[in-house]
Write a structure and sequence with these properties.
The chain has 250 residues and is of the alpha/beta class. The chain contains eight helices and eight strands. The chain has a single domain, classed as Rossmann fold (3-Layer(aba) Sandwich), CATH 3.40.50.
Length: 250
């Protein structure tokens, strides 16, 4: 494992690389961190170099801005790839990481060869906005505090900022607004993965993505909730991801 920090404008972007071989970019979800890839399994790094940044404001990365913008996170990732000398990668994005990945695929189309979007919506539906408005402004239990502090070690102000930003998404419409016309511009081969019981982003959004992204495939995970690729569902996801990233789905 190699860990480093890259200065990009006014932020410090922390990232880790694991393994060696074909580069695979992993982008975590909102309030997650780069290390979340391990919850899928070390098999993800078999024969690959996993590149796992902490998105701005998450983990060990900074974000001096009061808001979090996924398109800004995509620009950070583009600069990271350039700094590593990588002109083209395969990628996996979970939830907010998938949103960031869609921005990257539109911002710099040549940089993304293929991508897996897990529970990543083209826009925030009413179901998600209702949940976002109810997000507490701080963790509610000592166990919650402990988990947040482990993931985000830059202090309680960092944690409070993330939760405030999560609530703010309820009234956001510009940053996550991938129209069919925009999605049709995505050239990367894309696998859309959704759980059929996702309370945040209903599965109908998966079919909208599949209908609009030209070179796309769809895998709906039975009985899957939000981010149905961890824990007991990790083995099945690894098998599907290997098949897709290896090109056998073409």
């Amino acid at each position: 494992m190699h860990a480093a920090t890259l200065t990009i404008g006014d932020i410090e972007l922390y990232y880790e690389t694991h393994g060696s071989g074909e580069p695979l970019l992993f982008l975590h979800g909102f309030t997650g961190c780069g290390g979340d890839w391990r919850f899928i399994g070390d098999g993800l790094a078999a024969g690959r170099q996993v590149i796992a940044p902490d998105l701005r404001g998450h983990g060990r990365s900074t974000n001096p801005a009061p808001a979090f913008l996924f398109r800004e996170a995509a620009r950070d990732v583009r600069e990271l790839l350039r700094s590593l000398g990588l002109s083209r990668v395969k990628a996996i994005g979970i939830s907010g990481g998938g949103i960031t990945l869609m921005h990257l695929a539109l911002l710099d189309p040549s940089s993304v060869e293929s991508m897996i979007l897990v529970s990543a919506p083209p826009y925030f539906p009413d179901e998600a906005r209702a949940i976002m408005r109810a997000v507490p402004l701080e963790p509610q239990t000592p166990a919650d505090w402990a988990e947040f502090r482990q993931r985000h070690p830059r202090g309680d102000a960092q944690i409070a900022a993330l939760m405030r930003q999560a609530r703010g998404f309820a009234d956001s419409s510009d940053d996550v607004h991938f129209t069919p016309e925009l999605l049709q511009q995505i050239g990367a081969e894309t696998l859309v993965v959704f759980g059929d019981r996702d309370p945040l982003y209903p599965v109908r959004l998966a079919f909208e993505l599949k209908a609009s992204i030209p070179r796309s495939f769809l895998w709906v995970v039975p009985n899957g909730g939000h981010g149905p690729v961890f824990g007991p569902q990790a083995a099945a996801f690894l098998e599907v991801a290997e098949a897709f990233l290896g090109g056998s789905w073409r």
